Amino acid sequence: MSAEIIDRIKSKIMESRRIAVTSHLRPDGDSICTSLALQGMGEMLGKHVDVFIKDRIPFPFNLFPDIDRIQIGEMPSDAHDCVILLECANVARSGQSRIENHFKINIDHHHSNDYYAEINWVDPDAAAVACMIFKLGEKLDIEFTPRIATQLYSAIVSDTGSFQFSNTKAHAFEISYQLVKLGAVPIEVSEMLFNNHPWQKIKLLGQVLSTLQMNTSGNIAIITMFKRYLEDLDLKEIDTEDITTLARSIKGAQMVLFFKEIGPDTYRVSIRSKASANAALVAEHFGGGGHLHAAGFTVIGPYAELIKEVTDTVGRLLKGSGQV
Fold it and tell me: What are φ and ψ of residue 258, in 5° steps?
């Protein structure tokens, strides 16, 4: 089935002259680096490819080569033959308001997807959307340059947490092996991704970890990042995945709830889980979505009440689904 879908995507790309690529709000390494790789692949085919992302690029990806080729904000309403949406469960997830009338190609590796496009390629077994685009590149007979290989490798390493997360599959190593042979340099990517922190990030790490709470059963860890932490350190956007990973390493903790204050009485909750604890199930209960072990949702209300109510609800969901 996927071979047929890839053929359809190939045909649409080949018949198009101007292509737009976009991805989800609050972009991550997989969506950012894969978008750039897809742009380079399209240009090798003689296509004009624009990349649009609604939100600003977070650290450390804002320091990556070619990042200035990404246009921040809304795409035009009638300048492209098709739009490729990466990791968007629906059009709204992109934040773009002018693409409903375009021919849309939906490429995603998440379980939650509305299959909203003219062509839908959704593969929850893929470790990262970069793995899917690598397969597409092979079908397009792309001669992968070291730059494109590095972008795809960076996306895979980022989305698998340097091959530590549950979405790490055999094909992630197989494709990464091919990308290294094509010119990606693992140590350089690791330096850019993981050894590039400003001192303020380390200070923030301590502040967030100081909020650590455990539920009475000891299987849910709760950490919080208040806006004042970022303001005091003059930080605007910063990657916090490693903070969540530290909390997830607690013995007995099956799930981490990371509350990030984004407005008055408004919190974005990032979920990370392990073993059989289903993060996507929890997120969907609160109107969000994501992967088995990585998901998120937004809640509104007084902080102290949210901490108790959300944690109690998550505990019941885990128990009710037989995950504890």
Answer: -105, 105
